[in-house]
Amino acid sequence: MGLALRYESQPDGSVSAKFLGHSALEGYSGVLHGGLIATLLDGAMTHCLFARGIRGLTAELKVRYRERVVAAEEVILRAWLEDEAHGLFQLRAELTQGGTLKASAAGKFVNQHE
């Protein structure tokens, strides 16, 4: 099934993608399910690593839900690498809608090959 997101590498090293939900992805009427929001943020960070040729596995994910996300309105995802040491990658991601930050995440990833 998949979410069919197309990530684009940005000049600053981040990646971004657009996503449009629908009613089947709602947790409450008109509101995008929180589990899907976490999935989108995690996927953005994973794709940030893919853009660097790294196949990372999520070791830790911390999500901060700030405002409800309207399911039928487009969101923008953005993720970037903050730090890397000893095969542990620390990333951040944001989900915005209508120019407002709706959710953010911090994640720790390990290289799949280690």
CATH architectural category: Roll
Derived from helix and strand composition plus strand pairing, the structural class reads: mainly beta
**Count of helical regions:** 1
The H-level CATH homologous superfamily, spelled out, is Hotdog Thioesterase
The tally of structural domains comes to 1
Beta-strand residue percentage: over 45%
Low-pLDDT segments, ≥5 res: none
The sequence of SSEs as H and E is EEEEHEEEE
Named CATH topology: Thiol Ester Dehydrase, Chain A
Computed Rg: 14 Å
Total number of β-strand segments? 8
Sequence-ordered SSE layout with sheet pairings:
Elements: E1 8-9, E2 15-19, E3 26-28, E4 31-32, H1 34-50, E5 56-65, E6 75-85, E7 88-97, E8 100-111
Antiparallel strand pairs: 1-2, 2-6, 3-4, 5-8, 6-7, 7-8
Give an overview of the whole structure.
With 114 residues, the chain is mainly β. The chain is built from one helix and eight strands, in the order ββββαββββ. The chain has one domain (8-111): Thiol Ester Dehydrase, Chain A (Roll), CATH 3.10.129.10. It has one helix at residues 34-50, and strands spanning 8-9, 15-19, 26-28, 31-32, 56-65, 75-85, 88-97, 100-111. The chain has a six-stranded antiparallel beta sheet with strand order 1-2-6-7-8-5, with helices on one face. Strands 3-4 form a two-stranded antiparallel sheet. Strand 3 and strand 4 form a beta hairpin.
